[in-house]
Amino acid sequence: MNQDLRGSTAIVGVGVSAFPALPPGCSPIDAMALAVAEALQDSGVAMGEIDGVFAAGLQVFMPTLSICEYLGIQPRYTDSTQVGGGSFIAHLNHAQAAISAGLCDVALVVYGSTQRSSGAQFVSHSEPNPYETPYAYPGPVAAYALMAQRHMYEFGTTRTQLANVAVSARKWAALNPLASERASLTVEDVLSSRPVATPFTVRDCCLVTDGGGAVIMTSAARAKSCRRTPVYLLGAGEAVTHRSIAQMTDLTSTGASISASRAFSQARLTPDDIHVAQLYDAFTIMPVLFAEDIGFCAKGEGGAFLADGRTDPGGAFPMNTNGGGLSFGHPGMFGIYTIIESVLQLRGDCGARQVSGAEIALAHAPGGYMSSHSTAIFGTQASL
């Protein structure tokens, strides 16, 4: 790994759009464009300066082509890597390499979805699995329920511990004006909600929303002349372990350990150095597994580690500080929002949910059925 890339690039603009839903008739590209407009305003970068475009999605077959046409730009470099919800963190890894190699100067990473407003019209380009699709199991929720069941059996993780993940996310969402769900949520509310797939109830599962997100990234040198204080990419890592849930070797261990190790190596940091973490939470079991595999706690201790208020506002391990996929919103692929919230925290732009003294942030997101993993570590100027 080339550690010379540490801090060589920085995020200079972010934008969010379309929560919780766009008006009828809008497209995922509309959601993208609205987020791009906000990110351009945030950064002070002009549209014509974007010469690298990175995009992925569930609804759009060729997202980089569609958004470039919509915006009227002709970039020098494009990347539509699709590895699921963590694609956008992977894009940051690719963008830092492209910028370092001189293939582009200003990179746009963008996502858009109309998952909620499309309703029954929602169509994904995901291919059917010939070994699993015939059994008609209910997609991701069934796969992640298997992981939760196994973790509970093997390590004694409790339903209350899983419910605490959702409750903590809601406490953060209550402090975020953009969050889709802000009403009070208790452990009992989670446990007594409609069952979905054992052991999950509906409150163990992410929301279904529309959403757009955009990130603008450039070289560290150029970032100094942009409108907002730069947030530097200190390290990034990726891993791919399987595709289908039937081929996951161990339901309680994930490739997060690999991608995080690579990110920490480039950043020359350890889990103890992280001040705020965004751990993708489409289902309550996910942050439990990530806390273990990234190295914040030992294997089997994730349920207890994330309990007892540790991840709540004011807790020792601030996590998913925008409310996460469980309460902020989840437009099909959430990874770009782990980046955006990391940036907002390190810029000190989070208002009531601001983590005091945050200088180093970690964002982690998987794709598929824990199939791919992408980790990024960000820092302020003080961390370089």
UniProtKB/TrEMBL annotation:
InterPro entries in the cross-refs:
Thiolase, Thiolase-like, Thiolase_C_2
**Which part of the chain is the Thiolase C-terminal domain?**
237-380
Query: What CDD domains would the database entry show?
Result: SCP-x_thiolase
**An annotated Gene Ontology molecular function:** acetyl-CoA C-acyltransferase activity
Pfam families this protein is in? Thiolase_C_1
Designated name of the protein? Thiolase
